Amino acid sequence: MNYFITEDWSEKLSNRFPIEYKRELFTWLESEYASKTVFPPKEKVFNALNLCELKDAKVVIIGQDPYHTLGQADGLAFSCHNGTPQPSLKNIFKEINEDLGLSMSGSTDLTPWAKQGVILLNTSLTVIEHMPASHSNKLWHTFTTEIVKILNETNQPIVFMLWGNHAKSFLPILNNPNHLILTSAHPSPFSAYNGFFGCRHFSKCNEFLVSKGITPIDWKL
Fold it and tell me: Pick from 142, 139, 144: which is nearest to 123 by CA?
């Protein structure tokens, strides 16, 4: 297996799941990668965790599942490896421009955000080519829900950005008063005008971080 999770996250996760669950998850993944075209590449499945250790987490943005076209999925929610922004990412950049006055460079790789402490977490970490939501199952939901619970339990202040009903489904487990919870419509073209545009989540996030003595996120790409 080519999957990799950093020691920091592996330690936090080691006692959160029964051995039977872990065996079932990785056996299923191996079968899927062996028999189908699955994205992202194995070594990038846990990128959202590997690029940001728990102790460095400042922001959590929750997506649904990876892009399902060749060359796009890189293990980070909304991030696009090949430089072709998908509609939701275009709208995210539009809101950043309106909110912070930043003109984005054209890069669609959100790794610089992850390295500053933004966990870009899809609730399903894999997908079959051309089949959106094909891996949206209980196995992945159990795993990513536990990640959100771990982040919620952390005492360091974290900003959770929940865009759309899918992300908002995590609200019941986000009960730590140390954190800031921001909700809006999803940035998809089908819903962005229903509350994502004008939400000002990026400036609100940075204002909160600064108020806690934490270095804000440089959203410029």
Answer: 144
pLDDT digits 0-9 by tens, 19-33: 999 999 999 999 999
Tokens 């094909």 sit at which residue?
A: 134
Question: Do residues 150 and 143 make contact, with C-beta atoms less than 8 angstroms apart?
Answer: no
- Please return the burial class of 21, using the count of CB atoms within 10 Å of its CB with bins 0-12, 13-18 and 19+: middle
C-beta separation of 135 from 126 below 8 A: yes
Instruction: Find out whether 72 and 43 touch, Cβ atoms under 8 Å.
Output: no
- Note whether 1 and 30 are within 8 A (CB): yes
Please identify every residue annotated as catalytic. 65
What element of type H or E holds 163?
strand 159-163
The pTM (predicted TM-score) of the whole model is 0.96
Could you tell me if 160 and 181 are in contact, meaning their C-beta atoms sit under 8 angstroms apart? yes
* Residue whose pair of structure tokens reads 């440089």 in the numeric block: 218
Which residues, in sequence order, are CB contacts of 24 under 8 Å at separation 6+?
Answer: 139
